[in-house]
Amino acid sequence: MTHTGRTILGAACAILLASVAAEADSYLVLSHAKALDGKTIEDKDGKRYRLQGIDAPELGQVCLGSDGAEYACGEASRDALAEMLNGVVTCDILESGAGERQPVRCYNFLDLDIGAELVAAGWAVPDRPNGMDYVFNEMEAEARDLGLWKGKFVPPNRWRAGTRL
After folding, report:
1. Domain count, the chain
2. What is the pLDDT of residue 1?
3. How far apart are CA 134 and CA 139, in angstroms?
């Protein structure tokens, strides 16, 4: 590459980085974020983010597997999210200054929506009170008996309200 070519490439990179920096309030990159539960992630500085549009079993929530045996579905949901967070993810911040768990929509290195993937794998459900995102992903998971749909479970919002199997 010629000196002029490197200069033009360098200038293009600088412009790109400047545009990303200008959007820093609405966009973030997380490397090896930690899954705290099936819908909450934490960055290396301890800041927490909530995946927008999904709800997931609570830690300590018990579900029934396809064999009728109880299992810790909240932990299974968290583990599924942790596996999807492996590596670098990018997140769109949906509400700045939204409290302890800022709502985000995150994407893996293939640019797949992690919330959609978690619902499609059956380890989360759409957060219907706040929108109808991911309903088709849920229908697919249910039809294929994936994740929570292999057995029986109480939807997370009803579990929090006291309903048990």
Report:
1. 1
2. 56
3. 9
